[in-house]
Structures are given as structure tokens and as C-alpha cells.
Amino acid sequence: MTHRLHRGAAATGALALGSAVLALLPAQAGAATELLANGGFESGTLSPWSCTGTAALTASGPHSGAAALSATPGAGDLAPCTQGVDVRPNTGYTLSAWVKGSYVTLAATGTGVSTSTWANAAGWTQLTRTFTTGPDTTRVTVALSGWYGSPYQADDVSLTALGAVPTPSPSSSAPPSPSPSPSTSTPGQGDATLTPSAPASSAAANTVRVSTAKELQAALSAAVPGRTIQLADGTYSGNFKITTAGTAAARITLTGSPNAVLTTSTGGGYGLSLAGAPYWTVQGITVTNAQKGIMVDSSDYVVLDGVTVHHTTMEGVHFRNSSSHGVLRNSTVHDTGTAHDGKGEGVYVGTANTLTDKSDYVQIVGNTIGPNIGAENIDLKEGTTGGLVSGNRFDGNGLTNINYDDSWVDVKGNGYVIENNTGVRTMNDGYQTHTQQPGWGCGTVFRGNRSDLTGANGANAAKYAIDVTNYSAACPVTVTADNTVTGGTALVNPGIPVG
């Protein structure tokens, strides 16, 4: 016999069953917990933010609420405001902020973490980054900063956890997924990406922690594919050299915070040298007080991520001796060429006066280069091909013109893409191409670059954002209409098409 259940009883039973099921399910996540304090700047003070330079609360047009951060960088600073936050290892996080102003940057740094994004916007614009902490990350520093002499505002800054990164079961026999080679995609405005990390369990099992210069050199000498060398904060004195090769499937990583500082005792030699050492990632550390900062020789697929290089007698970072597919990203280079002899490029690719150095497909992405660079911010030599210079911020304060250094970027190689960069303070031009060897200095694409030539004080009567010194059917150049210039004579020199 079929019994028809009364509708009210059925409803009661369903509710009871639903309650029972819900009782067995894990609690659903509510709103994500905010980790930053005073991210909306509504407390009446800036605390616990720590700001350098001119910074204050403003009630003038906040994004939300009653107040926002207002900061004004000076001629030699970015007016950063920072806040330290405790985080969990192996956990994903979302960082966001609403900003407006010239070249406002939002960043997070810490042990094994270096990520940033920026915008140049007259109105409120949201910046967002996601990142994953490493196995030893317990604290990150969130930073807001602007651009020299340009006021900025920020509001509704937020840091929330996405959740823990799954850890493979100890019984699993599957090998760790290989880290991919550096991306060849073009990032959007202000984007900065990180090389994915290996799973937490394998990374922890193959991590060497060092805290002295002697331990560091020993770890570099004993490095094997797949290993991570973790630097504690502190000063490491010496000329450090890496000669062991990683592999595409098992990169070797040297990582630390900006407070892990490699320096030399005499100011001579290389701060960090990679020679015959492909597939390394160097992340987060600082290199200073050397003749040359980071030298990459005969080493393909090297990634320099979130490093700081400053106070070198000559160049800051150099990809040389056919070091192809290298990447410099999310990094800061300043105060190079302190000898003031025109030989202190911020970033140097290739070798002058030779075509045998095939340091091809090097990507220079999302960096701040300058001020006080003693030669070009970037010099791309003849013999090199197919590189990318994208999303960087250049400051030409420090150019000398002693060794023909009078622009932010000098392109002597072939097939480069120069895009979405911004530059201030130069002597003559923003970007130049030159033919140092027949058939070279050709095929460059310039797009989306913003050049401010205000105050350019070089000897040339005419000053251009893009100065192409050799243009013909055999040596083409592409300059798109979305390049812009403020000050100077014109966007391009006469005879160069724009479109």
C-alpha cells in the first residue's frame, strides 16, 4: 500500500533532515578575515602604517569612508608607507588597494615573497595581486609608494587569506611538478608574476638554510637541482659565485628578504656571479658595494625576481656570454656607476663590439631602475635578439653623457619589444636605437611608453621620446600611436612614422 505523506509532515521532515545534513557539513566560510590594520585610514591616524617622506590623512575625495592616505614623494624618494603583517606558510593571499596618482605601486615582500603591481591613474583605480607564501614565510611587508615628485592617494587597502596550499600525502610517490621556464607572455600594465613554487613537502625536504657568508658559499658549491637555499636576514660579505646547473624540471633557488644583503669587503669584483649555471632563480635579496652587482654568464633561463641592486662601481645587472631567456622582474636597481665614468648601466644585455654574444630573449619586466644610474638605465647590445622591456619605471637622474649615455634605453640589438614603460629625467632622449654593426639596431617595436622629457638638459638641441638613428626598409622600426611624450621636441625624430 502506498501512503501519501502529509505536506506539513513532509516539510517538517525535510527541515529536520536538512538540519542533520548541515550539522555534518563543515562550517561554510564567511567573509574573509582582514589582516591589515587601518587599511581604510579611518582611525584618525596613520598608525600602524610607517611612512617615509610627506604623508598624512586626507578627507579630500576618499574612495570610501571619511579619509584616505595622501603622500607626496620628494625629488629623491617614493614616499613609501609600509605595514608588517603576520602570515602563514604555504598559504595563498589576496592583496588589493584603491589608488590614484602617478605610477602608484602596491607591493608585498617577505621571505620567499616578492610581488607588486602599479597603475598610473587620475581617478580611483583598484590594484590587486595574489601570492602564495613559502614554507618559511611567517611575515610580509605590505607597501604603497608613488613616483618622484608626484602626489598619490590610497584607500581601502586589504590583505586576506585564500587558504592553505594542499600538501601531497606522504605516501604519494608522484614526483614534484616541474617549474615552468620563464613566461614569454607580455604582462599587462603593472603586472608582475612569480615562478611557481614546488609543492610544500618537496620544497621543505630540499631546503638549506644559511645565516653566514661561509655557510652561503658552501651551500652554493653543494647545490643540486631542485634545492632551495634560504638566506636569513643579515649581511653576507664576499664575492659569491654559482657554477652548478639546475634543470628545466628542477630549478635551483636562492631566496631571502631584502634584508639578506650580499656585499663585498672591498667594493671590488662581482657581488653575485652565475657562470655556467642555467635554471636558477634568485629571489628577494639585496646585492650592493661591488664593482658589478649580479653577473649572469653562459647561463640560460636565469630568473632574478624581486632583487635589489645598488651602489656598484659599474653595471648593476648583466646578462652576458650568450645567457639567453633570462628574466629580471619586480626588482629595483639604483645608484650604479658610482665612478661616474659612463660605465654604470642599470641593466646590460650582451657585449659591446661583438656579435658572438647571443644573450637572446631576455625579459626585463616590472622593475624600477634609477635614480642615480651612471649610464643608460638599460643597454641592449648588438648581437642580441628578441628581448622584452615592459612595464618598467626609469629615472635618468645620473646620466653623464661621458660614454654616450644620454637616454633611458639604448637598443643596438634586433627585434626588441619596448612597451608600457614610463620614464622621467633624462639628458637628451628617452629611447634610442643605434646601428653599431651593419644589420643591427633594427626591428624594434615601441608601444605604450610614457616619456617625460621635462628638464632634459643634454647638449642636443632637439630631444625626442624615441630617437631612431637608422631607419630604412632594411632596418625597420615600429612606433605605435599610444606612445606619449611630455616636454621635449617631439615624440619621434623627423622621418619616423607613427601609427
TrEMBL record:
Compositional bias of kind Pro residues: 167-181
Q: Which organism is it from?
A: Kitasatospora cineracea
- Locate the transmembrane regions by residue number: none
Which Gene3D superfamilies did the record assign?
A: Galactose-binding domain-like (2.60.120.260), Single-stranded right-handed beta-helix, Pectin lyase-like (2.160.20.10)
Indicate yes or no for the key word Lyase.
yes
Give the region (Disordered) as residue ranges: 162-203
Residue intervals of the CBM-cenC domain: 34-146
- Cite the SUPFAM superfamilies for this sequence: Galactose-binding domain-like, Pectin lyase-like
Name a GO molecular-function annotation. lyase activity
Identify the domain of life. Answer: Bacteria
- What is the name attached to this protein's record? Parallel beta helix pectate lyase-like protein
Q: Where is the signal peptide?
A: 1-31
What keywords are annotated for this sequence in UniProt? Hydrolase, Lyase, Signal
